[in-house]
Amino acid sequence: MKILVINTGSSSLKYQFIDMANEAVLAKGLCDRIGIENSYLKHTKEDNDAVVLEKSLPDHKTAIKEVINALTDSELGVISSMDEISAIGHRIVHGGEKFHDSVIIDDEVMNAIRDCIDIAPLHNPPNIVGIEACRQIMPNIRMIAVFDTAFHQTMPQYAYLYALPYEIYEKYGIRKYGFHGTSHKYVAQRAAVMLGKPFESLKLITCHLGNGASICAIDKGRSVDTTMGFTPLQGLAMGTRSGSIDPQILTFLMDKENMCVKEINDYLNKKSGVLGISGVSSDFRDLHTAAENGNKRAQMAIQVFCYRVKKYIGEYMAVLNGADAVIFTAGVGENNSIVRRTVLEGLENMGIEIDWDKNTQKAQEMDISTPGARVRTLVVPTNEELAIARETAKLI
Fold first, then answer.
1. Where are the alpha helices (DSSP H) in the chain?
2. Can you tell me which residues bind ATP (predicted)?
């Protein structure tokens, strides 16, 4: 069984083609600048070097065609025809309250995804475009929707409700949904394997720390709370997102800076976070360089980010009444030993004790705890594409 995984953005399309017999990535790539000048396809076959092809990509349908052309090309390809594609797994950011798991895509599912556009205006429309393009080009191949929000649908109502008039929740579905669910579930299941214990028996805190960042409390295999909320803006300070702030700040800024709704939305999502504090960058590599050169704002941005992560770990320790493990994943969580150290120092009373030499080592999966630590601390690289492929294979 060979699965094509599609992750569609507004002007991009990422893909992986995975042989589920051994979970090997046969090919992967990116169509970028879709609908924009100088568009291109970056394609990698197995372990070969990436090949960048300048392509005219006026829309997502054309991009999908170019992906199929690359996969079936005599030199770049890994299959002889589309008939070798068993199914397509689509990453869908928002499924609202309708989906608690991945589903086979049909017209009813498409309508439900469209119904969520109001609460995910930046994410669901390009996801829908990607599905529709695939359905037009490959109408006979089964397609699966894998939702970022689905894993968090096990949260109890007291965890996902906001303290707003209940009628607003009933009318508009305003509640905490959570995101990065595919990643949180994948690394938590990998952690269970590393610990040699059933996933359903563990209390885990997963920290997905990248340009977008969220933390999840998992009790016996079920998400019971997470930091992102109605949108991905809530929770941690992130690369360009503010994270949780006093809501009155919005109306204050709109008044004082004469901002409209779109402007305040862009301000909080694209100009805030560690970029806004530092004035340097949303990339932690740039922040560390600036901080080492004495840039006080860059130093403060790193401290704010790490403080928020530390605080939520403590909060979720309380929610779970202790934890078996804390897991770090995604670009910053996997690769930034300085951030991990800043977050984890001073948590010994919670049972978190770190071998600081191990923390600086680079490895695919590792336990960086001391031998006697009551709570294990793990670094687990995420693999959302493989998780989507597994969900797709399971359903078909």
1. 60-72, 107-115, 124-137, 157-160, 166-172, 181-195, 248-256, 261-270, 273-278, 284-292, 296-320, 330-335, 337-344, 356-360, 384-395
2. 14, 208-212, 283-285, 331-335
Q: Which two tokens stand for residue 100?
A: 């608690």
Angle formed at CA 287 by CA 282 and CA 346, multiple of 5 degrees: 105
The annotation status of 42 as a binding-site residue, yes or no, is no
Helix (H) or strand (E) holding 333: helix 330-335
Tell me the pLDDT band of 288, cut-offs 50, 70 and 90: very high
Taking each helix axis from N to C end, the angle separating 384-395 and 181-195, rounded to the nearest 10 degrees, works out to 90
187 is in an annotated binding site: no
If DSSP codes are grouped into helix, strand and coil, which group holds residue 349?
Answer: helix
Q: Is 283 annotated as a binding residue?
A: yes
Domain 197-379 class, CATH top level:
alpha beta
Pick the CATH number of 2-147 from 3.40.190.10, 2.60.120.200, 3.30.420.40, 3.20.20.10: 3.30.420.40
Cα of 377 vs its chain's centroid, Å = 20
Structure tokens at 332: 């910053």
SS3 state at 376: strand
Q: Which of 32, 148, 324, 367 is catalytic?
A: 148
Q: Token pair of 48, please?
A: 């070969």
Separation of alpha carbons 42 and 24, rounded Å: 19
Asked whether the beta carbons of 307 and 243 are under 8 A apart, the reply is no
Kindly report the average pLDDT of the chain as a whole number.
94
How confident is the model over 2-11, as pLDDT tens digits? 999 998 877 7
What sign does the dihedral 335-339-345-350 (CA atoms) show? Answer: negative
Catalytic residue list contains 148: yes
Q: Please, where in the chain does CATH 3.30.420.40 lie?
A: 2-147, 197-379
